[in-house]
Amino acid sequence: MSQEHHQNDLEPDPYTKRVLEDGLSRRSFLSRAAGGAAALGLSGLGSLPAEAATAPEAKGLAFGLSGDGGATLSFLPKPRPIRDREISETLTFDVVVVGAGASGVPAALSAAENGAKVAVIQKAPFALSQGNTGSGVDLATSEKAGVEALVARLIADSNHRCDPKLIRQWAYNSGEAVRWVIDRARKGGATVVDQGSPVQRAILKVNGYPMGYVTSFFGPKPYTTGDGMRSLAQTAEKAGVRFFYNMPAVQLVQARSGEVLGVIARGADGKYRKFLAKKGVILATGDYQNNKAMSDYFVPDVKHLGRKQLDKTGDGFALAYWAGGVFEPIGHTKMLHDFDAGPPSMCDMPFLAVDRKGRRFVNETVEMSLLNNYLRDAENAGHYSQIFDSNYMTQAAAWPGKLISPEGLKNYMPDDPSPKKGVFESQVNTHVAGTLEELARKIEADPATLVATVKRYNEVVASGKDSDFGKPADRLIPVMQPPFYGIHRRVRVSAICSGMLVDERHQILNAEGKPIKGLFAIGNLGGGFYGGVDYPLTVFGLSLGRCYTFGYLTGRHVARL
Amino acid sequence: MNNLTVSRSLGVGLAGLLAAASLAAAPAKAARTSKHAGQGITCVQCHGKSARKEAVPMRQCVGCHGDTVALAARTAQIKPTNPHQNRHYGTQADCNLCHHEHAVSENLCLPCHTRFTFQVP
After folding, report:
1. CA dist., res. A232 & res. A524, Å (int)
2. Among A159, A287, A540, B109, which lies 20 to 30 A Cα-Cα from A277?
3. Strand partners, B66
4. In this structure, is the dihedral angle defined by the CA atoms of residues A75, A79, A84 and A85, taken in order, positive or negative?
């Protein structure tokens, strides 16, 4: 990061200032509760008995209902500290990483390569991650003006609510970090390639300035970054990192001064273990999409939408919050996709789209990654279908995206006996039928509704003007010639990508804007990198690229403390 | 959508607490919906005698039923996929995620994998 972007230490930058003012911390919460608890239904919190040693969800449910009764703050009550006599074993390291995912494993290895004695404690039986692509900027082939133009684009993508210094930190360090992940994962046996710049077609130039990229790809599916991180963990073990699996963190060890000294975890044997960290604890537990209380409170938009992940219960959020950390304000950024039901390259092509019943609902030039906003009610729950007829290869040939031939579509058809390749077989959901009624049944829509929708759509197409939704005339093609095709997509939550307030060292800040000694957050637990309604798809693989980069930098930073 | 883990584990936790409460009141009585009780297994054999009752941990299940690696081998031929060997948990999925003792068991796969229509005993 260049010198001119450094902020005066005395005055927080606008991003940090906003989060300190509007975010949720124990301090802000208690003062707000005292000032006007009734509106939130929070009275009684002050007298909450803190008895249970693990997160007391059952007790918390009695408190903190939102105005409509839907959202609860059951993650709020801080549990009573686990006593030393309850600890079966104490282990001491320099750095303790909580969570073995796309930021935690790189952080652990990076810390070990910088001389630290490192432990990783992981709730699951092994390292986990999702997705295939993780990206960085190749500074050697990029114009400085282009890097800054890309930074500006990403800030705009986040509706100008992100922390610019974190975007710059990714931009200027990601090429090095992603290359490092590729090299070290390969040493652990991973199947990974650098796809470079060609896959980032839309941003080869930004504002006219040439750009180059490092694009790591763990795949093809069903192989994912999860497999890649398990290989990277092998490399980390060889470098001396100790992994403790089936070992969920339950509490931080915190001094009276606020300094974090370690983590207490609970093994499958039911016993508590204390992991002391001489230099710091790095939380990398991922998002909280499977924690209903946190989800309903911070991003109620996804209340009725399915989840793609399991066990992402926001453990690190609770730990950081109990330690004094600050949640980014309500209205967190979400990521909802379906790249699996049909060809990913056709997901943004503006074919007729119908909701779960079979009604047209949108100008189809809206990208798949944003359609969740139209389908978030309980009935639709993220379901929609793209509909086209047998002339699609010629009639849609000029559209952006890449068409897959009828033969290639069979790879996405559950009813077609052909062996599937490069897909999640259980998630493919593309169909073909001789009539619209039959197609409707296959995509689980109402046949009469779909027939009526297509009739109306064909009238609009014939008129040459989309008087219903205003889609451009060159994106209007009829649905007339059988067989008919339907890609039944179902957008679900891939990730929630807002987090806890951190500085550029990824150290968690307290409600006064001061770093909590010994406590860091990376990956989707770290705040400041997004801020818009939805995760942007400008840089394909930004999410994993950011996880690798901040893991790489933070592991190194904490090891050198 | 019913794959929000916290609400599920909370459900399990509460079920465990309720079962424990009824057992404290009438130790000789079996839980009403218990499959194990019909086979002469008593509450304390799973829930223990501790005053603080918790959901039965998985180590308690495998203590009697055996290792999950062997279980996965026994169910290897189940179509469309082996429920005891998967990419999310390997062979180490917590039994309680699907198999419930005092409530109707559930198919954890189904919300995401709509064609994995296992009947969970």
Report:
1. 19
2. A287
3. none
4. negative
What CA–CA distance (Å, rounded) separates A376 from A369?
A: 13
Of residues A23, A71, A136, A33, the one with CA closest to residue A509: A23
Burial class (CB in 10 A: 0-12, 13-18, 19+), A470: exposed
Is the confidence at residue B81, as pLDDT, over 50?
Answer: yes
Torsion of Cα atoms, A317 then A318 then A321 then A323, to 10°: -120
- Helix, strand or coil for residue A474? helix
**If you ran DSSP here, which 8-state letter would residue A380 be given?**
T
Contact with chain A for residue B48, Cβ under 8 A: no
A542 closest CA partner among A126, A277, A258, A154: A154
Q: Name the pTM for this structure.
A: 0.89
- For chain B, helix, strand, coil in percent to 5 are 40, 0, 60
Q: What's the confidence (pLDDT) of residue A44?
A: 35
Nearest Cα to A19, choosing from A499, A517, A504? Answer: A499
d(CA A315, CA A283): 9
State how far the Cα of A559 lies from the Cα of B15, in Å rounded to an integer. 45
Q: Which of A272, A426, A491 to mutate to test binding with chain B, by most B CBs within 10 Å of its CB?
A: A426
Q: How far is residue A493's CA from residue A332's CA, in Å, rounded to a whole number?
A: 13
Alpha-carbon distance of A388 to A441, in angstroms, equals 15
Q: Which domains does chain A have, with CATH numbers?
A: 83-335+494-559 (3.50.50.60), 339-490 (3.90.700.10)
Give the ipTM. 0.85
* Å between B46 CA and nearest CA of chain A: 14
Mind listing the pLDDT tens digit for each residue in A114-129?
999 999 999 999 999 9
CB A249 within 8 A of CB A265: yes
pLDDT at B38: 82
Characterize the bridge pairing of strands A118-121 and A242-244.
parallel
Find the CB nearest B4 among A61, A125, A292: A292
Condensed to tens digits (0 to 9), the pLDDT of residues A481-528 reads: 999 999 999 999 999 999 999 999 999 999 999 999 999 999 999 999
Between positions 87 and 116 of B, the ones with CB within 8 A of A are: 87-90, 92, 111-113, 115-116
Share in percent of chain A as helix, strand, coil (round to 5): 35, 20, 45
Q: What is the pLDDT of residues A401-447, one digit of tens each?
A: 999 999 999 999 999 999 999 999 999 999 999 999 999 999 999 99
Residue A230 vs residues A186, A252, B87: alpha-carbon distances, Å: 11, 26, 12
How many angstroms separate the CA atoms of A408 and A344, rounded?
Answer: 12
What is the C-alpha to C-alpha distance for residues A283 and A103, in angstroms, rounded to an integer?
Answer: 9
**Using 50, 70 and 90 to split pLDDT, how confident is the model at B40?**
confident
Lowest mean pLDDT of A313-322, A502-511, B18-27, name the range.
B18-27
Per-residue confidence band for B37, with pLDDT thresholds at 50, 70 and 90: confident
CB-closest option in A58, A295, A306 to B14: A58
Q: Is the CB of A126 less than 8 angstroms away from the CB of B111?
A: no
